[in-house]
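With this grant's support, we have paired protein sequences with backbone structure tokens. One protein thus recorded is set out beneath this paragraph:

_____
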Amino acid sequence: NCGGRIMSFIGGACSQGPGQVVDDELKHPIRSHHDIEKDNAKWMKKATKYYETLAKRAADNGHAIDMYSCALDQTGLMEMKSCPNMTGGNMVMGDSFNSALFKQTFQRVFSKDPKGEFKMAFNATLEVKCSRELKISGAIGPCITGGKKDGSISEVEIGIGNTTSWKFCALNPSSTVATFFEVTNQHGAPIPQGGRGCIQFITSYQHASGQRRVRVTTVARNWADPATALPHIAASFDQEAAAVLMARMAAWRADSTDEGADVLRWVDRMLIRLCQKFGEYVKDSSVSFRLPENFSLYPQFMFHLRRSQFLQVFNNSPDETTFYRGCLNREDLTNCLIMVQPILYSYSLQLPPEPVLLDTSSIQPDRILLMDTFFQILIFHGETIAQWRAAGYQSQPEYANLKQLLEMPVADAQDALLGRFPVPRYIDTEQGGSQARFLLCKVNPSQTHNNQGWGGGGVDGAPVLTDDVSLQVFMEHLKKLCVTTQS
């Protein structure tokens, strides 16, 4: 079949036919997370099933379904998620088709490379081959099973499993799929030490020019015995890739099987097991606990993942949760990591721009902060700077340095906005402003109203009103559990 795209522009929820998600009576609001938990979402299961059938049909034909959902209320994106997620289509969510945000995002769909070709590929298949000591558990990404079976399929299924090939009806330059493997000793044969395990990815796709292309990537890794060569295994650990793989697995679990609390417990269990295996500690002494350098950021990533909108549905509609998880499952490593743990840059008159900790202590009166969460780009002005700006000092010639300081984060934000799809929401706010909440809900709450005199903020940051535990408390508990728990 020839590749193609179906673009659907959704301005409201479907209220008729087999894909109905809400009825015509305005007094009946569309389902919330609470309704789904209480099994109170009348149309959900039937509609989801209908859209899955539709998605399979499109995927068999090699057609991608794009969903552009723009409305002030939910449009039923949660029921329809299989259409873009199984076919590799775009999923975009906005307030209005008339907004500049949507128009810029939509224009980016048609961006071209230097040769004048669209930056999209069609009808792709990814086939994985591996050496006999490895088995394929599955893949998580914007794809559907290719239904290809052979002896290298693992019984442990992660994501879309039980196959060695997957089909993507559409790809773009940043499409990324997570594949999961299991190491097995077949027929009791020991794994050859000093030998290598190989994995080969064969991707064939139709280029925008109409040409069929095949790309083969082969990777080989040395075998190491966990009993004797644990340091070798530890040295090759990539904490950033591991954090994104865990985030995808956790989001997949939250979406398909488990309750939110079960997923959090699973994330915690996996983190404790990893720290027990690779941490250095004296039994029952949490002070002695140390992690190797290339593991040091991993607990922090898990802390932010637990608080993220991928696992915490509070304050998000089911449609928003679907949109966020959809983006996590198709973006590349850097972007996924930004979604899990946003980046924070600080600008001040004394120092050059620098990355700072995503922590309440970074919120200072004489600083401007730039936070990138992938979905939003936020510029936050500290109290003093906001007062200077309100007084208009930046337009007086003797305060040219203040004018320059105010312009720097704006220029950097524009750079970040350039290559991103969908275009992030741009927020300009200040200490005490209503939109400062976007920053306050992301920073680590090391100072809260519980442990800080409320009001004076003072030298070391601005306290946040929350009962969430801080990273410091999280780490203390983690260390305690690692040195005492019987694995």
Notes: The radius of gyration is 25 Å.
